[in-house]
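User: Fold this; tokens only.

Assistant: Input:
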Amino acid sequence: MTTPPRPSGGDPDPPLRRMADGTVKQVNPFTGTQVWTVPGRAHRPIEHAPGRVVAVDPTQPEAHCAFCVTRLLETTPEKARLVRDGDAWTVLDRVPADELDATTPEFRLFGNLFEIVSLDYWRSVHGYRMPARAAAHQRSYLSTPAGVAHVRALLDTRAAARGASATTKTGEAPDATALAERSRSFFGGCHDVVVARRHLVDGATTSDRHAAAGDLTPDEHEQFTAFTVRAMRNLYLDNPHAAYVSVFQNWLAPAGASFAHLHKQLVAIDEVPAKTARELSALALDPHLYTRLGVDHAAEEGLVLAANRHAVAVVGVGHRHPAMVVYSRSAACAPWDHSADELRGVSDLLHACHAATGPLVPCNEEWHTLPPGPGREGAAMPWRIVLKWRIATPAGFEGATGIHVNTIDPWALRDRVAPRLRELRATGRIAPMALGEECGDVRGSLRYAGEG
């Protein structure tokens, strides 16, 4: 494969420089974010202290947080669940309240009780109407006593959190019309959550053994990823006003997680993020931007971590926190247009990065995708996922200068992660993949812009 030519014109300082004293200066080639790594600041602990640890009985059903499978009525009505029978996986859509315990969900999809962008926003600003299937789900759910009781309890929970009064007084029959109006966001909202079954790893005897993404098997992680892609696609289909769907995963409290229970979130917004818009403008001038400044630059700096036929994982440059980036090699830009093998390729490398990170490191997983819509039919942007270690808190220096202090430089991150990946592969914890120099020359291997 050949590397696309660099556009004419002078370039600023390179994205990655090591200064005479060992300071590493970075500039994110896509966002312009400035990052410095200063010698002597890289030896701080990166693992999050779990807090109070208590004994747990591994034979008892999990009930540690509102996302646990024994507390299904503490989340909004399920839009879908993924169940497993041996090697067979099946999606069950819109499970009724009185059938929630009939199967065990490996992954669940439901609306966020406290939305970032509310249904009221979509209705008042854009005249959004619930899609027919969501409206039918609501009618069916509220046609049973179990469904009414569930929804009423959730409305009371949300009201209490806002300091408002309950929907009805104790013992009083709820008004059906009011109940339906107040619960529309549970069924037709545009902020969804995908939750994994396990709170703790299987057989855990203490409360600090949280089941992280890297504790899933590669097959489980593939299903987690595919189930999320399905939910992402449905948000676009259901809301014609959605300009972008943000998909992310917060792990542990320092990374913004309310619960130490594995989950992803999907939030539809009505604008293309400014950073994405800037990248689209840059792509118009240089369609090979991600090849040249993403994978090719990483290869030239020795920052390639892993690769398989359908994806490549590299250490990211110019991120506020230590970061790994998984690039899809598919010619398709949208995750839902990937073949099953292509999606598995992305999932396997992402899973490996999570496993190498470990369950005690706070981190954010961010999906970056091409916004669909008119005027972008000819644009091409690879699906890529950034995994950031949230191990430092920005302070006054960052605010005053716009320069972020990242305590681990890209080469140091590579040296931390690479040995762990080899160990994980040797023990079969991650899928087969090429590591480090085994990956060969990955330059020019992204196909999103018609390459390869």
